[in-house]
């Protein structure tokens, strides 16, 4: 591969499914996306997830790439949108927790018991979801989320490529988010029903 390939040349090759071009684009822009996300959300794990999601989207939609458009603007726009989406999700979760805590305080101390029940339920639910994952994905997810290992450390430990680890974590995170979205909806409905 040429050392000083232009963005257009790399995008043209990526559009044809060239993995080396994808890797070169990741090398150029991965750090930028990660740093932007980390500085905005102050969370390394979320920054890794969002960086993976952006580049998986790039790979999935490579056939639609217009190499004449400003790629830097595309990267920034997608990264910003993913950060905004995550920020909104965090604010909604925080607002829901605040409402539950205020309600518990208003009822005079039930909050502690409620929190213990909620924490126990959430821990059991997470464990159940992790068990539903395919074995390799489950192992990678546990190493990352519960043992705190980075993508590089997991790749070294399991003797797999970093791209494989990133892909498995991406799919595990999508799975967990979709299931938690459902349970949050269910809990919010229960909460509203109990207080109406």
Give your account of this protein's structure:
Keywords: Sigma factor, Transcription, Transcription regulation. This is RNA polymerase sigma-70 factor, ECF subfamily. It comes from Alistipes timonensis JC136. It holds the Pfam family Sigma70_r2. Belongs to the sigma-70 factor family. ECF subfamily. It is a single chain. With 196 residues, the chain is mainly alpha-helical. The protein folds into 2 domains: 106 residues, Orthogonal Bundle (Rna Polymerase Sigma Factor, Chain: A); 89 residues, Orthogonal Bundle (Arc Repressor Mutant, subunit A). 82% of the residues lie in helices and 0% in strands. The chain has 8 helices and no strands. Helix 2 runs parallel beside helix 4 and helix 4 crosses helix 5. The chain is globular. The relative contact order is 0.08.
Short description:
This protein has helices at about 5-15, 20-40, 45-60, 70-105, 110-130, 135-145, 150-160, 160-195.
What is the annotated CATH architecture of the largest domain?
Orthogonal Bundle
Computed structural class: mainly alpha
Rg over CA atoms: 20 Å
Q: What is the tally of beta strands?
A: 0
Beta-strand content bin = under 5%
**CATH domain fold name of the largest domain:** Rna Polymerase Sigma Factor, Chain: A
Domains, number: 2
- Main beta-sheet strand count, sense and barrel state: none
- DSSP helix fraction: over 70%
What is the H level of CATH, i.e. the homologous superfamily of the largest domain?
RNA polymerase sigma factor, region 2, helix turn helix motif
Q: Name the shape in a single word.
A: globular
Give the helix tally: 8
Give the uncertain stretches in residue-range form.
Answer: none
Q: Order of helices and strands, N to C?
A: HHHHHHHH
